[in-house]
Structure formats: C-alpha cells, structure tokens
Amino acid sequence: MSKQHSPNAKLFVLDTNVLMHDPSSLFRFEEHDIFLPMVTLEELDNNKKGLTEVARNARQASRYLEEIVGTDLIDLEKGCPLSIQGNRHVTGRLFLQTNQVNIDIPGLAGNKPDNQIISVVLNLHKQHTEREVVLVSKDINIRIKARAMGLAAEDYFNDKVLEDSDLLYSGSKELPEDFWENHSQDIESWQDSGNMYYRVSGPLVSSLLINEFIYYDYEKPFHAIVRKIEDNAAVLQVIQDYSQPKHNIWGITARNREQNFALNLLMDPEVDFVTLLGQAGTGKTLLTLAAALTQTLDKKTYSEIIMTRVTVPVGEDIGFLPGTEEEKMAPWMGALEDNLDVLNKTDEDAGDWGRAATQDLIRTRIKVKSLNFMRGRTFLNKFLIIDEAQNLTPKQMKTLITRAGPGTKVVCLGNIEQIDTPYLTEGSSGLTYVVDRFKDWPHNGHMTLIRGERSRLADFAAEVL
C-alpha cells in the first residue's frame, strides 16, 4: 500500500455490517482511506440474495464498489480514488485486501469472519506504524474484541443524529418569568380569522423555531405557537384550548399541556408532517385517530385514513398469517382496535344501533396497509399514520414520507426507548432523524408527550420497571 497522501489521514477498516447498514458509507470518510478485508466482500456476497433491506443494501454496496474499482486493470496496491459520482469532496482512497494475512491470534478461532477481520486490522497496524488504523463496525462484540487486542475500534456514526437522545428537539419551550419584561417593547397584537397574534422582539427570539410551542405558566398563563420569525421579531399565535369539553375532538379532550399542543398540530391544515414521541400510554395513537376521524368524517379535509406500522415482533415470530393484506395486518393493529373502542364510547347519545353504524362507517374510512407494499404509491388527500416509527431506518422513513401527494398529512408516532430493530439505536432511528431534520420547516410540527394518561397501574409500571 502506498504511503499516506495526507498527513492526518486515518485508515478505516470497514466491517460488512457498516456497508449493509448504509452503502453510501463508502463516501462518508472524506480525506481518510478505507480498507476492505476479503472477508467483508465475501460476507457481502453471501447476503445479497432476497428482498430484505439488508440484501438491497448489500447489492447497492457491491455496485458502488464496482464503480470505484472500475474496469481498468489498475494497481490496487495504490488504491482507487473514492471521488466518483459527484463525491468530489472525498479525497480518500479505497484499498482492497490483496495478500493473504496469516496472523494467529491466541484465544480466537482463526476461521471466524470477525476474527479474520481483527487479524487484518492487526496486520495493518504493524505495517503502518506511522498512521492510525481504526476498525469501524456496528457489532459491539467485535469492537470489544479489537480493543482487547489494543486496536482502535469505533461505531459508524455518520447517520447518528444525536449522541444523547435527551438533546432531541422536544417541540416546546418554557418561557422564563421575566419574559414579558424583556420582550414587551414594541409589542404588537392583532386578530385574524378568530386567532390572536402577537409580534414580540427580544433576546429569546433567536433561539425559537417555527411551529415550536412556548408556554408561560406564571400568573396569566400564556400558551402560543411560533408562526414566523422575521429579523429579530417572532409572530406568536395563541393556540386553541382543546382541554375544554366544548372544543373536544371526537369526544376527546386534552388531559395535559403536551396533549393540547399535539392536538393543535394534528388539527392544523397548514402542518403537513407531525411527529409525536412519547412513552406507552401518553395518548399518541388516541389523539391522532381522534383528529384523523374528525377531519375525515366531519370536516371532509381528507378522503380516508391510512394506518401502517413496522411489523417487528416483540417475542418470537408467529409465522405466516392467512388472508388478505388487511387480515394479515390485523394482529399488528391491536392498538388501532383498542383506540377505536375508546373513540366509539365517546358518542353517548347514539345508543347501540348508532354506535354500530358509526363503527361500520369508520371501518370503511380506515385502511390498514403493510409497509412492504408502499414503494411506488402516491397518497392524495389522505391522513397517513405511521405507528411504531422508531423501528424504521432513515432510508425507510424517506421511502414512506415521499409517498405523500398533494393534500396528504403524515403523522409519525413512536417511542425511541422501545427500538426492536437490530443495529438501530435511539440516535440513529429514522424517527430521531426526521425530528432533527424537519425541525425548522414551516409545515412541520413535533411534540414530545411526557405524562402517561393510561391508568395509575400503567404509569407506575412505566416508572419502576
């Protein structure tokens, strides 16, 4: 291998799971070089068959590799430039393992793929004493083994939005007690279409985001949403109070401040994309369904409700399920059934017949779809609910959100503390990704629900277990 071309360029050895997690990881190391052991290529080949996300990624990674290596008989010892396909900013090179490495590692079985990769890293470490050699893998165990051998090992962080999920945008901000003293100069207020607006300027304005909720809970409580930020001034709109029975949504009223904020987003026709985060029992699905039914059946803003969720089982898989797509999805949609029962009971005047009729009407307007058949679809004037969205990768999230046609609202629900998909963490989940990327878009809204409203038993269990 040639000498380094940049004084601080590191040499990153990639494990297969990095390429299968994100094929474009080949172009994410900028001025640093990449080394692929032969085992990585072998494992990539073994995983390319099938229709799973992993198989697709393995095939895409192989295509990228062919483009990088090219068809000319180039000297692989000198490496292939990674600056292809508009990735001109990438100045590093790709090296493939061309020599057999036989390093016997005491205590580790030599024929295991992980251990072969470690032996390659050890060999490179001995060859290139002048530069840093780092193993990059999504597998915790191989990283621990490498560190035990005195080698540098890292997780692949490029698609990790946040190191700490506590730093994730929450969607609301508490105003300090002296807010009005510092921000009431040049204050303007006006009414438009029954809504009250204020224009305030001051030091806090620069830290606000569009569609962020702000609340002042001292004397004269004030709950508003940031509608515009112009220069050093913010336009605030006083929000609708959905905790009042007269403003109920399909019989549902907000039981706490965050639920009220969430209902304001769900009922706002200007907000096309809503993300709701929260633990079990905070009311994510119930509020979303109530808002969806009101806007589909009463206001006729949307033509139907489409509900989908990631089918990752918590326990052992129960095998193939019989029936149509709707019937196959039925066991996964227990949450939908439970919430519809609650919503159906809110109509006290209807009697049994009325309720049965409403239930049939609701059933005709709610379609349950599987994620597997979403590619190529376009949804017009639909209310699309993606449940358990924390189990989606950023790429799957993109596939789903780009299905939205004109007049469609997309709502993502999830709890990033309950991720069941292998290799996804709170920081790299598709849900975390969209919350962070969409946070200052004028047609986006996000709310983190904090308080459980299910039952005292559920709240206590969530707290102590």
Description:
The protein is 31% helix and 19% strand. With 465 residues, the protein is of the alpha/beta class. The chain folds into 3 domains: 11-154, Rossmann fold; 165-238, Elongation Factor Tu (Ef-tu), domain 3 (Beta Barrel), CATH 2.40.30; 245-464, P-loop containing nucleotide triphosphate hydrolases (Rossmann fold). The protein has a 6-stranded mixed β-sheet with strand order 3-4-2-1-5-6. A 6-stranded mixed β-sheet has the order 7-10-11-12-9-8, with no helix packed on it. Strands 15-14-16-17-13-18 form a 6-stranded parallel β-sheet, with helices on both faces. α7 runs parallel beside α8 (284-298), α8 (284-298) packs across α10 and α12 crosses α13.
Can you tell me the number of structural domains?
Answer: 3
Give the CATH architecture of the largest domain.
3-Layer(aba) Sandwich
What is the structural class?
alpha/beta
Helix tally equals 14
CATH fold node name of the largest domain: Rossmann fold
Please state the CA-atom Rg, rounded to the nearest Å: 27 Å
Spatial order of the strands forming the largest sheet: 3-4-2-1-5-6
**CATH class value of the largest domain:** Alpha Beta
Q: DSSP strand (E) fraction?
A: 15-25%
At the fourth level of CATH, the homologous superfamily of the largest domain is: P-loop containing nucleotide triphosphate hydrolases
Total beta strands:
18
Q: Which shape, going by the Cα principal axes?
A: globular
Q: What's the overall average pLDDT, rounded?
A: 83
Largest sheet: 6 strands, mixed
Helix content: 25-40%
Uncertain runs with pLDDT below 50, 5 residues or more?
none
* Alpha carbon gap, first and last residue: 54 Å
